[in-house]
Amino acid sequence: MAYEGQLRRIDDNRWEIPKDESKGMRTNAVIFASEAMLSQIRADNAPMQAANVACIPGIVGSSMAMPDIHWGYGFPIGGVAAVDADSGCISPGGIGFDINCGVRLIKTDLTLDDIGGLKQALVDELYKNVPSGLGSKGLTQVGYKELDDILANGSEWAVENGYGWERDLEVTEERGHMMDADISAVSDKARKRGLPQLGSLGSGNHFLELDLVENVFDEATAKAYGLKEGTITITVHCGSRGCGHQIATDYLQEMERYIRTNSIPLPDRQLACAPLDSDLGDRYYRAMCCGANYAWANRQMITHWCRESFEKVLGDSAESMGMDVVYDVAHNIAKKERHDIDRHYEDVLVHRKGATRAFAPGRSEIAMKYRDFGQPVIIPGDMSVGTYVLAGRRGSMEQTFGSSCHGAGRQMSRKAAIGSLSADQVKREMAEKDIYLRNGSEEGVCEEAPQAYKDVDEVIRVVCDAGLTAKVAKLTPIGVIKGRGPSWRPWRRPRACPWATPPSRTSRRCPWTAAISLSGRSWSAA
Fold first, then answer.
1. Global pTM?
2. CA nearest 190: which of 136, 251, 243?
3. What is the rounded CA–CA span in Å between residue 77 and residue 66?
4. Measured in whole angstroms, how far is the alpha carbon of residue 411 from the centre of its chain?
5. Which residue of 90, 238, 425, 521 is most buried, as measured by CB atoms within 10 A?
6. How confident is the model over 497-515, as pLDDT tens digits?
């Protein structure tokens, strides 16, 4: 079903669905896109989802969608919406089932000459050490006590238990630990699903990639980020696995009952939501924080195994090879933030569903070492073209609550890709580009074929021309790992890495977050 409603041009990079387009819209919807992208964007009716989001109670500003917009659950993927922190609501459909699906970029000081003919050996070792695929299990076994600590403390637990370096936390969004996490809000079923999967990629569009820094567009910012032309990087894309999926499922069921019981008018039940100041809304937010912490711990453990893999194949220490984390960004999450709205600051909850935080220089949330340059924004394309590293700019603060795109965005459904593409052809095309692909299934190769995705160069052009971000570097793939089948390897006990330094347990609660009352306020559906 295609979208046939209004899309009015605002400028070369923005299109508006006016407030009167659909019954119940409380504000307008703005889609960031070039004119050339509109036919594809209309084709899957995702603009209607952006219009539906504008009906959510408490929404502040416009409902927005990035140029990688495509059909999702409730919100379009690529959707951004802020709600008032006191009177607004929270919607699991605005975060997604894979809570804190995100991207981590790890740099090295190595060049292709440094690794010689060992590229395939590196990819093979990574494939062995980082489990991937539907139902895959992690390489370590934790009990419920440890899992609760992970849900509460995220990456801090991983570093404290030997999976990385203290400085990894400094360049992770929220330092890998959302302070409002409350393990009592997470169901036993979510725990059981997450328990065996810690330290695994998962399937679908999740991946681990070896890249080469091919182009540097901004020397000063690239230097601050630790990126140098000709060096090798590692990109990790994954989330909260079955734990986050179950958290979303549990609360969607409760919220669907809530909107029926309270006769909340919404154009799509997939937008089921609850007031932030209600018990249900508060519990979901705190459970979501737990899911986000799980995902950050997951990517931190994968970082540890990437370093181990390089050490084994190349015979040098991760420290000597300069294997520092550049940044870790979430792109399925809701964040309590303070933004300038109509010339005064307000506290809002920003839903980003397939969208990346892209704060401009100067924001206190940015790691100190990057604060003068803007937040790193990591945008993967398809598996044949690699990843862009961008920096947040002032336009994002003025237009999108500090948000940008999160990837290329699909232009072909998984079913259509499997039905129309040949895995052998995809693998031949990857080999012709000298990209070594390790994959678990033929269907998975077709689902994630380059042809299934939009042109990431056009997506990047739009967000940069719109002033949301600026280009810093382009990373080109040399090796790609995609998901495989179910559980394939027995667990092993955790081994503390020799370079680990225990993190500080000092609380870093945001002062305004602590001051917000999440109880006792009235909320109207009107």
1. 0.90
2. 243
3. 9
4. 19
5. 238
6. 333 333 333 333 332 332 2
